[in-house]
Amino acid sequence: MKVISFVNQKGGVGKTTTTINLAAYLATTRRKVLVVDLDPQANASSGLGLQDVERGIYDVLMGEATAQEVIRETEQKNLFVLPSTADLAGATVELSEEPTRLKTVLSTLQGFDVVLIDAPPSLGALAINALVASDAIIVPLQAEYYALEGVAGMLDTVERIKNNLNPDVKLLGIVVTMFDTRTNLAQQVEQNVREHFKELVFWSVIPRNVKLSEAPSYGQTINRYAPISSGAGAYKRLAQEVMQRVEKL
Amino acid sequence: MKVISFVNQKGGVGKTTTTINLAAYLATTRRKVLVVDLDPQANASSGLGLQDVERGIYDVLMGEATAQEVIRETEQKNLFVLPSTADLAGATVELSEEPTRLKTVLSTLQGFDVVLIDAPPSLGALAINALVASDAIIVPLQAEYYALEGVAGMLDTVERIKNNLNPDVKLLGIVVTMFDTRTNLAQQVEQNVREHFKELVFWSVIPRNVKLSEAPSYGQTINRYAPISSGAGAYKRLAQEVMQRVEKL
Ligand SMILES: Nc1ncnc2c1ncn2[C@@H]1O[C@H](COP(=O)(O)OP(=O)(O)OP(=O)(O)O)[C@@H](O)[C@H]1O
Ligand SMILES: Nc1ncnc2c1ncn2[C@@H]1O[C@H](COP(=O)(O)OP(=O)(O)OP(=O)(O)O)[C@@H](O)[C@H]1O
Ligand SMILES: [Mg+2]
Ligand SMILES: [Mg+2]
Fold this sequence. Notes:
Strand order of the largest sheet of chain A: 3-4-2-5-1-6-7
Bound molecules: adenosine-5'-triphosphate, magnesium ion
Radius of gyration of chain A: 17 Å
Mean pLDDT of chain A: 96
Oligomer: homodimer
Shape of chain A: globular
Largest interface: A-B, 37 and 37 residues
Distance between the termini of chain A: 12 Å
Number of helices of chain A: 12
Order of helices and strands of chain A: EHEHHHEEHHEHEHEHHHH
Number of strands of chain A: 7
Structural class of chain A: alpha/beta
């Protein structure tokens, strides 16, 4: 079982969109995939079709339920979700001294090939729990100035956490998201990122594609909502690249 | 002096872009305006032209510097900024028991007509400090599904904080941001928000406009970078609407 977290302190860069759509394409390759929604906003849960979740990851982290009791199926075979609820926001204070709580929870899981963790937009206790529980991390990077400006500092922080708490976690790669082919800004950001981070940056670039932002309103991933859209093609290619790198871990 | 916070737990919805561009248009009306950057990402600081900030709001909140020592001028007359630095991330644990620390800091300020606070994408200790220190809050709402889905729950949480810690703070309004005129999704979101929140929603809608995302890479606000763009016009109109509502507070 490999555990991969999607982390970026910057908000709205495509962490959730990347987690759930990558998970969907990985699940089509007969791998059994679990998405862990570690954000109190619970966007990954609703993007995978779950509404009105009663028990979620908060209950599991607090020891009031097991992961097996809370994990839900999705419409897609081989794709499961450990959902989130709003009360997860209360966990940040409780987990600030407990960086390994999620790792312990995930160690009880059996039968999954890949676990993908969607983290909230911060580097607080929840994101740290994700880093400590992971074999690898992927950083979605929006093709915008603020997102680019923050990435170097963010990676330094991740490196510090890694060295202190989980020296084995690897930065699997950086994926450029919401790339608007019509703007110079997006091209400058991609060029800048490739020059700076070189082979760390995935070749697959996710274009800005309205189908990706419409799909969650139907509770569907892109492979079901719009399988021949530019967004679907990009996530399918990314899934292949990700598995090539995971196999080398 | 009126203090207004820009709050939304959802990431990337335009909190920083709205804070700094609204501040710029308010400062053109001979009001003395201060932007307080309460996000460790320090996007408002760099969007207002500051680089390599040594001392920021963290030092002030920890009592190691006064606000007056740390406040900086910007390129625009009447527009000032209390900048942020990355170590502000360390404040969340320290401030979790101290919801009024920022309010105390701002009470020492003199000579400002309006203070605008840019909050990070969370409802943690920093956002709570902003709510407690404010006369009013503005919620930027991206014209997307996840942002819409989360807004009702977010406002409930704000209401709870308000009743416990600062009963006087008012929800000044909701502003629809990144409205892409070409997509049905954006129109559906706007219609849905106006039906649900009625006159709370500002009439001014901020369009998606690449000039708004280019401006911060030059450290400029939109009134200086592209004063005749659709983004500039929208923030100018919003500034007028905001002041009409502030005067009635
Ligand atoms: N490639 C894309 N094209 C168009 N829209 C996109 C794309 N990727 C994401 N979106 C939309 O942009 C918004 C932000 O994406 P998303 O919510 O996945 O980011 P996030 O990093 O998870 O945000 P948060 O920091 O709040 O967790 C969402 O409304 C999403 O539907
Ligand atoms: N109306 C707009 N048109 C085009 N781009 C925009 C618009 N508003 C904001 N942006 C861009 O979208 C990105 C997100 O906006 P911004 O950083 O202001 O959101 P935020 O809510 O402050 O994010 P965070 O949650 O990380 O603090 C930025 O790169 C910004 O330049
Ligand atoms: Mg998310
Ligand atoms: Mg911001």
